[in-house]
Write a structure and sequence with these properties.
By secondary structure, this protein is mainly alpha-helical. The chain is 67% helix and 0% strand. The C terminus is likely disordered.
């Protein structure tokens, strides 16, 4: 009876949390009756709902539009303006490009080409797939990169494990990774995952199983590592960039070029150390393969090479659609890099009377627009020509949930500023000014990394940005010194399958257990944290002038200050 009662109560725990949290937080606005307390009520309520996900993340993001006007913090029209920013235009253009890349199969050509370059030795094969996934993740959503690469990885793994079986050497149609089969695989994986079933193919030896674990976990982690490299690579980066434009409008320190200069070395260091860590953890401590690349290949390596070569040959020559998509991609990156490099005048200086008018979003949207104008070559003269991508295809790829979530975060950030909550937080955090700056940054990064394991990356950074920027102002430290490493650490959700979508997709293939991911994730979290701290303490300092308090940040003379 008690068991049934507990089960019944658990079934309604979401409803209980939705109702109880506002009641528990209600004393804040009722007792203090100040704008700061009313805004704190909204902030804590949203943080709780975001971390527990009792309400869809995108709908929780709507709370400022409801509560700020009711509390008198902001007018409804003012709140509404915060829900669509420059960030959204940048996102739309990037998603147009990502939709075309996925539709025309350019991602598969890139991934397979990178793998063929590194070889088929298990260790080099893992590095090849990780590099391919990380590169793709620089330009598309992390979850998209994983779902693009994993079907190819699965085909190679199955071929390796069956290389010595009686069917070795025969064509196996089950291993084809065509677009249709990829979709079927993904549907089956999601069904298996929802039912808690592990679809592990039969492994011939412990070594095979360990290689499966290392490769699959490597794919999940490399998508997050690659995502931090570029501003549009992952949601937290874009949220940070737009938050900076909103709260510090005179700050022009962050652009595509200098972000790439900071984060590309971080990603390379993390990728290589993660590869070595996973190899040591799952396969062994014999690193002699680093000194030998040639030699005789085993049957399994030959089988893997055959699968990869057959897959690459099946793609045929590059189609006109792939060439156009690749060209747009290269032009977009080039324009981002040269718009305003900082050390030399960029092409944006050709418009002197519109200084600050052109952003990365302008470039993204302009080139994304081309995919709806330029027709693809596969149509008949008698038929109305179709564009490179359709609105339906774009709509299916567009992360509307993230767009609304980010809008809610911007509204929340503006509310904390208008209500004075950010100033109150700055006063509260002033004692941290007596700590060494690097210690303060480390504490912030550890807290963010811990929270992001159980909450959405986008929700985590949205919650912490309005807290960390007043902290930086309170201790008189360049806000970028605190915000950049915290933003990067938000993407380090490596411990659990539920920590982020790429982890869940890889876990659903059934090669890894939760404990495998926890053990591997702990090491990668440490690698990521140390890599980020190294970057902001060395080459990040001259890149963003982190050792000086900038003119674009407010000066709070009544607070204690310290220098980095």
């Amino acid at each position: 009876m008690l068991k049934k009662l507990r089960q019944g109560l658990w079934n309604y725990h979401n409803v209980a949390l939705i109702v109880l949290m506002p009641l528990l937080l209600l004393p804040l606005p009722l007792v203090f009756r100040q704008k700061e307390a009313e805004c704190a009520f909204v902030l804590l309520l949203m943080a709780t709902y975001w971390m527990t996900e009792v309400i869809p993340l995108s709908m929780t993001a709507m709370l400022p539009a409801i509560l700020f006007p009711l509390f008198g913090v902001m007018k409804s029209s003012a709140v509404a303006k915060e829900y669509f920013k420059d960030f959204h235009f940048l996102l739309i253009g990037v998603i147009c490009l990502a939709t075309s890349i996925e539709k025309w199969g350019l991602h598969r050509r890139i991934a397979l080409r990178l793998v063929t370059l590194v070889g088929v030795n298990p260790a080099w094969l893992i590095l090849g797939f990780m590099s391919g996934c990380a590169f793709i993740s620089m330009w598309v959503q992390n979850i998209s990169a994983v779902t693009m690469v994993m079907p190819i990885v699965e085909a190679v793994l199955q071929q390796i494990m069956k290389a010595k079986a009686e069917c070795a050497g025969k064509d196996n149609p089950c291993l084809q990774t065509s677009h249709e089969q990829t979709e079927v695989n993904q549907i089956l994986i999601l069904l298996l995952f929802s039912k808690g079933v592990q679809a592990r193919p039969p492994c011939r030896s412990k070594q095979d199983l360990m290689m499966c674990k290392a490769m699959c976990i490597g794919i999940a982690y490399s998508s997050s590592i690659g995502g931090i490299t570029t501003l549009p690579g992952t949601s937290p980066n874009l949220i940070f960039s737009e938050y900076l434009n909103q709260i510090y409008p005179d700050c022009n320190s962050i652009n595509f070029g200098n972000w790439l200069m900071l984060c590309l070395p971080i990603s390379v260091i993390m990728l290589l150390l993660t590869w070595i860590w996973l190899y040591w953890l799952f396969i062994g401590s014999d690193f002699r393969f680093l000194c030998r690349r040639g030699g005789e290949h085993t049957e399994k390596e030959k089988a893997a090479r055959k699968v990869i070569e057959d897959e690459y040959k099946s793609l045929g020559p590059m189609s006109s659609q792939e060439i156009f998509t690749g060209a747009v991609f290269l032009v977009m990156v080039a324009l981002w890099l040269t718009r305003s490099p900082g050390f030399i005048p960029g092409w944006a200086s050709l418009f002197p009377h519109q200084k600050g008018y052109i952003t990365d979003a302008t470039v993204s949207l302009l080139l994304g627009f081309l995919f709806f104008i330029v027709p693809h070559a596969n149509y008949s003269i008698s038929v109305h020509p179709e564009s490179m991508i359709s609105w339906k295809e774009f709509q299916a790829s567009m992360p509307w949930k993230v767009a609304l979530l980010v809008g809610g975060g911007f509204a929340l950030a503006e509310g904390t500023k208008e209500s004075g909550l950010s100033l109150w937080v700055a006063e509260l955090l002033t004692p941290l000014g007596f700590l060494p700056v690097l210690a303060t940054i480390t504490i912030a990064c550890i807290i963010v990394t811990t929270i992001t394991e159980v909450a959405s990356n986008a929700a985590t950074i949205t919650i912490f940005l309005p807290i960390l920027s007043p902290l930086a102002e309170a201790i008189h430290v360049n806000p970028l010194y605190v915000l950049i490493p915290s933003t990067l650490c938000t993407s380090f959700s490596f411990l659990l399958p539920v920590s982020n979508p790429p982890n869940a997709v890889v876990f659903a293939y059934g090669h890894v257990s939760i404990m495998d991911m926890v053990k591997a994730g702990l090491g990668v979290n440490v690698i990521g944290l140390l890599s980020v701290l190294l970057a902001v303490a060395t080459w990040g300092v001259p890149l963003f002038s982190l050792n000086t308090y900038p003119d674009w940040a407010p000066v709070l003379p009544e607070f204690n200050s310290t220098a980095p």
